[in-house]
Amino acid sequence: MAGSFGSRGAAIMIGGQWIRYAVSFVALVVLSRLLPPQAYGVFAVAAGSVALAGVLGDLGMSLSALRAESLSHQQRSNLLWVSAGAGIVLCVFVNLIAGSVASLYAFDGLERVLRVLSIPFVLNGFSAQFRVGLNRVGRYGAVAVADTVSSLAGLIVGVVAALLGLGAMALALQSGVTSLIALVGLVAADPWVPTRPRRDEATRHLLSFGGTMWLTQAVSALANSVDSLTLGWYRPSGEVGAYSRGLSVARLPLNQLMAPLGNLAIPRAAAEPLDPGTRLESLVDVFRPAALVSALGLSGLVAAGSWAPRLILGDQWSGLATVLAILGVAMIMQTAQQLPFWVVFSMGASRVIFVAEVVPRLVFVASAIVCARWGMIPVCVCMVVQQGLMLGLYCGWAMPRLGISAAKVFRDALSPVAMPLGLAVAVTLVRLGLAAVTTVSDVGLNLICVSGWVFAVAVNLMVSSNQRRAFAVLWAHARTAVGGSSKAT
Q1: Does residue 424 surpass a pLDDT of 70?
Q2: Contact of 83 with 125, CB cutoff 8 Å
Q3: Which of 8, 104, 120, 233 lies most in the core, judged by the most C-beta atoms within 10 Å?
């Protein structure tokens, strides 16, 4: 796997994701300055309302196809029609219930936003198998181009709509245009042409795995939406929007780096006849450098305090420092979870994933419903608890059932994130302690914490050869990606 990770195709894929990360970051920066918190609150409630329907639209088919050792033309076609049909049904369903859902909240424009957000169900249902097919054959450059162009198109439409004063509708239009352009790009890049569905093709095992993963995704979608939905019941739309923006910032490294790397690593690991221990080692080579960069970025976000939301989102979001600090810790823990998840997923142990994911998420759902009435800070704490429980279950419970040492997975998962996690916790405690016993200004606290963070990172890099090696690997991939992106197809 080390060699495959160093291949030009993998490097192009990573480089493309960095470009998409930059586009997403620009969208976050620009639109957060053009739209008020209330618009993000309306959009967060709408997105939360359709999140579960989004999982229903896929039915786990993309994940099932991604990890399959082999996939025939007819099997891909069957999976596409299942996903596309479900997407169409759900688009109609969301339009039917949009008025009823909007009546539950006193948020202006919620019904219109829900109707626009129903359209990507159809688009994503058709595009899923094209995306999986390109990933399976190593055409990461084509996927990166489609994702980058679609993100840019969505950003342009979102900015124009925001300037026209459309509010939350600007965010809904951005989502719809991004899905549409991505579908066009993926279909244009893949010569595969689906055939009509046939029942005589062996697809039952794919549907079985996909069904179990769908249940896992359904509970995950519920957990990912219950926070905004319950906050919307008790708090004004501006506070819901503030929480949504903080969560978007904290999730950027995971969504734009770690998740796409899983799409690269999982099919290759699943295709190789490896014993569990060797499979773990092959995935560690991919996981370690990306996890280090992701976790360092999150800990730096925590250290920056109130500077982070002001710099990234604008002055109207300056009160998000505490939210970002708590969510940053939660997302560093979620970064560590990616390694055991990749291992379990590549082995096809869907029932193990179900238990490891569902139990902590149900705990979060219950606690978030209870805590939402007191605002977004208690909900953020609930998320930290969820991530800690999930990491413990994946490493301590799931790994032994697959014949892998729990202690080894803990070490491999935590080694790249331990230093950033420790820094995030340390700077938070220092900030709280100094604020309690001194009269140091907010600027002074930020200077102290950022300076301490920079010093600690520099010292750690000087004494840790593993971390220097991880940065060297990422730098090599970036150079390869830049040199090879023009040749990507």
Answers
A1: yes
A2: yes
A3: 120
Structure tokens that stand for 61 in this block: 């088919």
Domain that holds residue 442: 2-487
User: What is the amino acid identity at position 224?
Assistant: N
Indicate the DSSP class of residue 104. T
pLDDT tens per residue across span 182-224 = 999 999 998 888 888 776 555 555 555 555 556 666 777 777 8
CB 236 within 8 Å of CB 41: yes
CA angle 80, 273, 472 (to 5 degrees): 90
pTM metric for this prediction: 0.78
Please choose, from the candidates 173, 55, 41, 159, the residue with its C-alpha nearest in 3D space to the C-alpha of residue 110.
41
Q: What are the structure tokens assigned to 474, written together?
A: 């990422």
Tokens of 19: 């470009």
Domain count, the chain: 1
Estimate the crossing angle of helix 119-136 against helix 259-271, to 10 degrees. 50
Count of beta carbons in the 10 Å neighbourhood of residue 106: 10
Termini Cα distance of the chain: 23
- Alpha-carbon distance of 94 to 105, in angstroms, equals 16
The two counts, helices (H) then strands (E), for the chain are 22, 0
Q: Give the whole-angstrom CA distance, residue 235 versus residue 254.
A: 28
Residue from 340, 351, 383, 344 nearest 365 by CA: 383
